[in-house]
Design a protein that fits this description.
The complex is a heterodimer of chains A (257) and B (381).
Chain A lengths: L3 E12 L2 E12 L3 E6 L5 H9 L6 E6 L2 E2 L5 H8 L2 E4 L11 H12 L4 H14 L16 H12 L6 E5 L7 H18 L2 E5 L3 H7 L2 E6 L2 E5 L1 H5 L4 H8 L1 H13 L1
Chain B lengths: L6 E6 L4 E9 L4 H15 L6 E4 L3 E4 L1 H16 L4 E4 L3 H13 L13 H39 L6 H11 L4 H23 L8 H39 L2 H7 L4 H39 L4 H11 L2 H8 L1 H19 L5 H32 L2
Parallel strand pairs in B: 2-3, 2-4, 3-5
Antiparallel strand pairs in B: 1-2
Helix pairs in contact in B: 1-2, 2-3, 4-9, 5-9, 6-7, 6-9, 7-9, 7-10, 7-11, 7-12, 7-13, 9-12, 12-13
The chains are: A alpha/beta (257), B alpha/beta (381).
Chain lengths: 257, 381
């Protein structure tokens, strides 16, 4: 079996004449938590959309779990996509459905299960992401931002995907909520043997939970460990990790160790 | 995937029972596995024989499989059997433990399932209360708008002329082609249908009277109001609603700006100015359309047509039609703005309230038109 969960080779993405990614390579290993960072407009979200099959790149191949995502037939691609779970920035919950129904959507779509089992599975997912049973019958508009993200994660996990992609999971959460979300990702990754690709601007969660970090810089991507990136001479990385906020975050973790 | 092989069987040994699992305990096999395990648990019934859940032949297990392990263990224990789970590798063990420790004590309440009779009655009651509530709120809003408009007219320097002008352009000027075309076509249809009836009595020439009176008194202004309700009333709701969702309206309030003055008043005034002009334009187009039909298709000479038109289309008829236009405009704008400000939080309500605004304003326009007809009838106009 291919040891890589996701393998991007020679990806080219461009909007008109504005080239966002040029010959970008990236490999996400199975079972790791990979952080994806980059300045605003460096194409993090575009890359995420390319990986989950929402945007075909102008060049290069996307291999997910050993299969060429844009080379296989549409039905094969849908099957492949169901092995990916995506948490969009604000949860992207279906606003006309309750949280319980949101989690059940992918289950209903793919399997014929009894209502009782559907409810049981929804409650397992709710409990796993740390939501209270009361949240099950609330609508997304009635939830706080943090709860919406948890509910979105519960839906992303509904089919027990092998890979989970998180788009700024801790943005907009208070520090306690953000730390709790980090722990949640860690325990889920441990229990479900997930591969996690996480876009984030949160240096705290980068140092806390990621195994490696991918940096989008100059239309390319470099992957390395936090320590290696911190000692890089690249000015943007210097600013990112050794600026006032980055230094505080990394110092806190180093002293914790 | 070897999901088809998933299953569980009971093996009775001397003093204990083994529940042996097989295949992949994943979501793909859930439907069958769920029923199978429930049956096995029922077959065992209550007792004190120790049960071993032996899962060493289970290849893969996901959260739903882990849930079934946990549920089976819990219900067997509840029936009095001591249970132990064997044969999971470390990762699977972690998963089952995680699911067991985090799951809720009680199952989720099933969906509320009332009898249909009760449910329909409850819905009817809800809807009635909703309508009553909305009527009181609309009246309140009407008052607020009226006072804001009056205040604006009393202090014209505070009116937002740029916004007013932009709204007149978008609701009036840009609606000219569609309003004109619709009225033109309706005029033609009216003339044609009228003539085909009136020729039976040899009264073809009265087609002109029919055309003039129906276009000037009713059709011109009514068609215009309906088109404007669909075009501008919905736009008002969508524009203001989107601003509410974006918290722009809240931002205005915190900056000390009055959303009424900035959003509602210019729109209401703009429509009150634009709709009568549009209606007048619609009247002309309707008469031209009907006239062309009379002259070219029915063969009424042009001078005779004009003569007949002059006698039928008195200023009173024009006035009776146009006097309704500002009222319609006011209602359409108020309903549109009101629904925009009713939006709360989510984007979905913008769509719902926009639809509602169009339906409500067309309904109100027709009700008010009927009221006008009755009033004019009493006044003998």
């Amino acid at each position: 079996m291919d040891s890589a969960a996701i393998r991007l080779q020679g990806i080219v993405n461009a909007f008109g004449r504005n080239v966002v990614h040029d010959q970008l390579d990236l490999t996400v290993r199975r079972g790791e938590i990979l952080g994806l960072v980059g300045g605003s407009g460096s194409g993090k979200s575009v890359l995420l959309r390319t990986i989950v099959g929402l945007r075909a790149p102008q060049g290069g191949t996307v291999t997910v779990l050993g299969e060429d995502l844009y080379g296989v037939s549409p039905s094969r691609r849908r099957a492949l996509q169901s092995r990916l779970g995506v948490l969009f920035q604000d949860g992207a919950l279906f606003s006309s459905l309750t949280v319980r129904e949101n989690i059940q959507v992918p289950l209903r779509e793919r399997y014929r299960l009894k209502p009782r089992l559907l409810d049981e599975l929804a409650s397992v997912k709710l409990a796993l992401v740390g939501l209270k049973p009361e949240a099950a019958d609330q609508y997304p508009s009635e939830l706080s931002g943090g709860m919406r993200k948890r509910a979105g994660l519960a839906r992303a996990l509904a089919l027990d995907p092998e890979i989970v992609l998180l788009d700024e999971p801790t943005a907009g959460l208070d520090p306690i909520g953000a730390a709790a979300f980090d722990e949640l990702v860690l325990t889920l990754q441990d229990a479900m043997a997930l591969t996690v690709l996480m876009i984030t601007h949160d240096v705290d969660s980068l140092v806390r939970i990621t195994d490696r970090i991918a940096v989008l810089l100059d239309k390319r991507c470099t992957v390395d460990t936090l320590d290696a990136l911190r000692s890089s001479s690249e000015p943007w990385l210097q600013d990112y990790f050794n600026g006032p906020r980055g230094r505080a975050a990394t110092a806190a973790v180093v002293s914790e160790r | 995937m070897s999901a088809a092989a998933a299953g569980a069987t009971l093996v009775h040994r001397a003093d204990r029972v083994a529940l042996v699992g097989d295949g992949d305990w994943t979501i793909d096999a859930m439907g069958r596995l769920d029923a199978q395990l429930q049956r096995l648990v029922r077959d065992l019934a209550s007792g004190t024989a120790p049960v071993t859940i032996a899962l060493s032949d289970v290849d893969r297990i996901d959260t739903s499989g882990a849930w079934l392990v946990h549920r089976t263990r819990r219900s067997l224990e509840a029936a009095g059997h001591p249970v132990n789970v064997q044969g999971l590798d470390h990762a699977q063990d972690v998963l089952v433990a995680r699911v067991s420790e985090s799951c809720f004590a009680k199952p989720l309440a099933p969906h509320p399932d009332m009898r249909w009779m009760r449910r329909e009655l409850a819905n009817l009651g809800d809807a009635t209360l909703g309508v009553l509530d909305e009527i009181t709120r609309l009246i309140g809003f009407l008052g607020a708008v009226s006072s804001a408009v009056a205040l604006g007219l009393a202090r014209p320097w505070r009116l937002r002329f740029t916004a007013l002008q932009a709204n007149i352009i978008s609701t009036g000027l840009e609606a000219l082609p569609i309003v004109g075309l619709m009225s033109f076509l309706i005029g033609m249809v009216l003339a044609f249908q009228g003539a085909s009836q009136l020729t039976q009595f040899g009264a073809e020439i009265f087609t002109v009277n029919l055309l003039a009176i129906s276009v000037l008194r009713e059709i011109g202004v009514l068609m215009t109001a309906i088109i404007v309700a669909g075009r501008s009333g919905s736009a008002f709701t969508a524009q203001i609603g989107t601003m509410v969702v974006n918290e722009e309206v809240d931002a205005m309030r915190t900056l000390g700006l009055d959303p009424f003055e900035i959003l509602v008043v210019p729109r209401v005034l703009a429509l009150v100015i634009a709709l009568p002009l549009l209606a007048f334009f619609a009247n002309i187009c309707g008469l031209v359309g009907g006239g062309l039909m009379c002259i070219f298709a029915l063969g009424i000479p042009i001078d005779q047509f004009l003569e007949q038109l002059r006698s039928a289309a008195s200023p009173t008829q024009l006035f009776v039609g146009l006097v309704k236009a500002p009222v319609f405009a006011f209602v359409i704008a108020v309903v549109g703005c009101r629904n925009g400000l009713r939006v709360q939080g989510d984007a979905a309500s913008v769509g719902r309230l926009t639809t509602q605004a169009v339906v409500a304003s067309i309904f109100l326009v027709i009700v008010i038109d009927a009221a006008f007809s009755i009033a004019f009838n009493f006044l003998g106009i």
